[in-house]
Fold Group II intron, maturase-specific domain protein.
Amino acid sequence: MITVHKKSKEQFLRELKSITKRSNGKGLSWLKNRLTEYIRGWIGYYYLADMKTFLQRTEEWYHRRIRCYIWKCWKRVHTRFTNLMKCGIGRWRAWQWANTRKGYWRIATSPILKCAITNDGLVRQGYPSLLGIYTKLHSN
């Protein structure tokens, strides 16, 4: 069985972490393009290896990082309120959630953003799915 070396996995996670840093200020379109480019390249290089469980665990963390990045981009309360309403959250609930004092990382895993920004929603918006790319390449 072919596997990916531990150092390669660590490097992959380090690079994902640096791309999704909240402080880079490059915007969501740059983030989508850079993530797509890096993830497709990395999985394309290692697609013969058996890494499904690694990608499943990483994908949960990866989605949380993206939600955290998006919440940070929505910086102001009014922007959060407006965007939560656009995501289908009710007016009163959106107002409560927009005014939360919890930190970015905590909000990223809370029902607030898990309801508003689902994993399927992220894929529809153009963010790459680790398992989706892997299963496409691995099945061929």
In short: The chain has one domain: 28-139. The chain has a mean pLDDT of 92. The chain has nine helices and no strands.
